[in-house]
Each structure stands twice: as C-alpha cells, then as structure tokens.
Design a protein that fits this description.
The protein has 10 helices and 7 strands. The chain has 269 residues and is α/β, with parallel strands linked by helices. The chain is globular, with a radius of gyration of 22 Å.
Length: 269
C-alpha cells in the first residue's frame, strides 16, 4: 500500500506537469519537516527561545523560559519545578566535603535537568557534568541551552551521544580514558528504566561511585514495573549499600522520585 501511494514520486520528470513537479517538491519538503519535528519534539525551538529571551549566564531565567515555552506549546520537554528541585537536592547531597562535583546524567533531553544539576554545584569551581542522550536533535539543543545559561561559569559540560541499549561498561571505560574521570558524586538515570540496575552494577564494579554519592531516578510510580529490579537493588533493606528515600510529586504529573545515597556495604554484583 505504501509503495502504491508513493509511486507517483518516481515518475519520469518529463511525464509530469510543472504543477505536479511543484506538488512533489512541496510534499517531500513537508515530509522532511514532519520527520524532523517528530524527532525534535520542540527541542530546537526551546534552545532558540531561551537564547533570544534570557540573559546569557542566568540559569534561573533560562529554566523559567524553558518551562514556560514547553508548557505553552505542549512539548512535554520540561521536568517541572518539583523534579528540578529534587535534582538540585540530590546533586547537592552528593557533593564531596570540598572540591568539585562530578555528575553523570543519562538522558539529558534538551538540557533543563542538566541546568538543575549545574545550579547545585555552581559554587564548586571545576565541577563536571557528563550528559548523554540518544536523540541527536535533543543533544544539540541541550548543548545550546547549557552554553547559553552557564556563560562564564567554571563548569565543564561533556555532552555525549549514547544509545539507550549501548554497552554501558564500555562507555564508562571510554569516558574514563578520554576525561580522566575516576568517580562520580551523583548519577541521574533517565533513559531506559529496565537498564538502570545493570548500569548501576557496572558503576559499582568499576568503583566509580564515590562514598556518599547519590542516585536520582524519576517516574517511580508511572514506570514502577520497569523500575522494579532497580528499586529492589537500591532499597535501604537490600544490603547493597544504599539508603533510599522516595518523594511524591504533583507536577508536571503525579509521580514520585527516588534519591539513593551510596553508604557502602556488601554488594551483590
């Protein structure tokens, strides 16, 4: 059926009228635009909007403009204030007693969660955040948003394209080789929930969680089934070295967030 619908696109040019050729070009242009929009989901508009309407270097203003446009246009790309504040809490709690923090964020979308993490460690000069994303359009938008909002801040932003089903242990090895990062103070998991426990186990096996490091995971209620293995692993009663608290949220929809602190102890890897 699809082949029959689009056979006309492959007719010899000589056989088509001028208006038919124009229609073909217009249809193809619209098709490309729709495909890009489906992948972009408003991310490029968000990056353009914050760049044009907020002062460079003002993270709070950037976040407000980002949330406002995402909400008004129905993009669904914003975390919301409650999740954002809990990211700030998790990152702040995971910071070492002194010196810079190092955060790994998987699934950064268009960068608002990245900015929340940066807010929490902005006072720690030389801090680093590694942000991964499977969607190339979203990652490009995040790079623009973060560059704009963090102008003049002594924070290192390391964006990486990473497929949700990529070999996470290999990614960690490559990251350590390229950046010299040995341990993280906070991990923000936000890609495929069924892979969180395996990713966490890879981090533990490589000794890449510093003592007192925190983990942040949202959608604890809406994706409870897919998060079951992870939540069981980090439960305070599991004996795997974590103390976990769960906080309910009401926006942008009713759900919950889990923040876990790495306290050490016996671990079943």
């Amino acid at each position: 059926l699809a082949h029959r619908r689009f056979t006309w696109l492959n007719l010899p040019t000589a056989a088509m009228s001028s208006s038919w050729q124009l229609a073909r070009v217009a249809f193809y242009s619209l098709w490309v635009t729709l495909c890009h929009a489906a992948q972009d989901n408003g991310a490029s508009q968000l990056a353009k909007h914050v760049g044009e309407t907020t002062p460079a270097g003002d993270i709070r203003a950037t976040l407000a403009a980002f949330d406002d446009l995402s909400l008004r246009r129905g993009f669904g790309m914003h975390l919301g204030v409650q999740k954002g504040e809990l990211i700030e809490l998790a990152v702040g709690q995971g910071l070492p007693a002194s010196g810079p923090g190092v955060v790994l964020e998987t699934g950064c979308h268009a960068g608002d969660g990245t900015l929340r993490a940066i807010v929490a460690m902005a006072a720690r000069q030389g801090s680093t955040i590694v942000s991964t994303e499977d969607n190339a359009e979203w990652l490009a938008a995040a790079q623009l948003v973060v560059a704009h909002a963090t102008k003049d801040l002594d924070i290192k932003f390391v964006p990486r394209k990473l497929a949700e089903d990529a070999a996470f242990d290999e990614f960690l090895d490559e990251l350590r080789e390229e950046t010299g990062i040995v341990q993280f103070s906070t991990i923000i998991f936000d890609q495929d929930p069924t892979r969180f426990v395996y990713q966490l186990q890879a981090l533990l096996a490589k000794g890449m969680l510093q003592p007192g490091a925190t983990l942040y995971v949202d959608n604890v209620k809406t994706k409870a089934h897919r998060l079951r293995k992870y939540l069981d692993f980090v439960a305070s009663s599991s004996g795997n070295g974590f103390k976990t608290t769960i906080s309910d949220i009401t926006e942008p929809y009713a759900d919950a967030v889990a923040i876990s602190t790495f306290v050490g102890g016996n671990r079943e890897l």
